[in-house]
Design a protein that fits this description.
Blueprint lengths: L1 H8 L14 H12 L10 E6 L2 H9 L6 H4 L2 E8 L4 H14 L8 H12 L3 H26 L2 E5 L4 H7 L7 E10 L17 H4 L4
Antiparallel strand pairs: 1-2, 2-4, 3-4
Length: 209
Amino acid sequence: MELLSSLNTRYATKVFDTTKQVSEEELEKLLEAIRLSASSFGLQPYKVVVVKNPETRAELRKASWGQPQITDCSALLVFAVKSTIDTNTVDEFIDLVATTRNAPKEALSEYQNMMNGTVGSRTPEQLENWASKQAYIALGFGLVSSAILGIDSCPMEGFSPDDYDKILELDKLGLKSKVILAVGYRSEADKYQQYPKVRFSKEDFFLQI
């Protein structure tokens, strides 16, 4: 019931209270929850850029059509996918699996070949689309975790990815921004928190087969 209560009170926050900041401890909990997100094969073909610098966020706001959440939130999380996903990506992950689980790499060859087959059979555009889906799963983890932690948030697609990539120099890191999440605490002036949540009924939403 605590989970459902948290989800019922969350909403896409439009006005953040600039006098309230998410503590480093709470932010670390949120980031760890996002890090633990599910992803296809466990590859995590994306990274999360945590933007706190006021000057940088002022530039990002210009690339977000002036939306105030960008500068008024406690932290801005930018979900960015890897520009290149290939056998090297798989090899790096297999090394991590072997080290973490203290397992010989030879025992992971079948798993490695399966991933290489999937990666090798897709075009760069298909891989970017696939990676974007994984990033959105992580975004979902961030939204739910924020609600449970009592942190307000706003998922946003209203920005120029190309401009974000230039401002954050993501191209130099081999990354492309896809979606952002502003986190902080709602302002009493945000009228949207007073609106009843609108969702389709269970009867209309779920198909029982």
